[in-house]
Amino acid sequence: MAQWFSVSVRRRAIFAVFFVLVPSMGMADEKLATLVKQAEQFQLGWDAAQNGELEKAGDIWQALSKEAIEVPELNRALQNNLAVLLIKQKQYPEAEVLLDSALKADIQVATTLSNLNQLYAYEAQKTYKKVFSQATGVTTPSGKFLYFDVKQSALPAEYVSIKLPEFSPEEAFLYQPETQEIIDVKGLLEQWRVAWSNQNIQAYLSFYHSKEFIPKDGLRYSIWEESRHRSLKRPKFIKIEFEDVQIVQLDKNLVRARFLQKYESNLFKDDVYKMVLWQLDGSQWKIVQEIVAGEKS
């Protein structure tokens, strides 16, 4: 009886809030009733999640996600929270899909991006586990639930769903704030490019971490260094340009740069996509991995 009373009071409270929010919109009773029911369903899932009943929360939110939801804040929170449940089950690829979908919104995007960045950082840390084995270890994603407060929601005019551009996982990083670490690495990336173009071998090699750098094909650093001497000194000229540069901070001590590298000399010419991983060593950023991700088609 007490539980029924609690749900009944909550339903009336939510119903009243919608009338306050839209007193002059002439919304049909059926439409209003649907919105009230969806808000109530979300709240039931939220209560279950807060009580540690994640399976129950998942069932409630999964059922709600199959309905046509016209309140953007509710849809964002719902997709985010379903993704968090997947994160807690270590179903990371499935969680990425839901979080990427949630990026179409902007009001709650900060928390959503934080959860998504945890997944990307986790995958990156696994890829560069040699680096992390001597650093902080791999951080397992945890996720953070979003709460939908009907009192703060903004109902779209005439209840038309808002269509925003879709973002790929990589494009989502463009929304990451430009930290001081990113600014520092951006400057070093340009200095590295200039040293390479000028065939200044000592300046060029100074950007690499002599102990942590992972050469291609498992070469020892000393052998790789000798090969770079030949590669930089043999051509009569070297011209290098970077395009489509994307720099992402993966960790307080790790920054990744991705770009299209256009290389030209009297001996060779190619355009490749490259990834360069920078690690903070004391007060200096050094390259610890350099990978060709593919050729430009």
UniProtKB/TrEMBL annotation:
Coiled-coil regions, chain positions: none
Pfam families: Cds6_C (PF24125)
Annotated Cds6 C-terminal domain residues: 188-290
Protein's recorded name: Cds6 C-terminal domain-containing protein
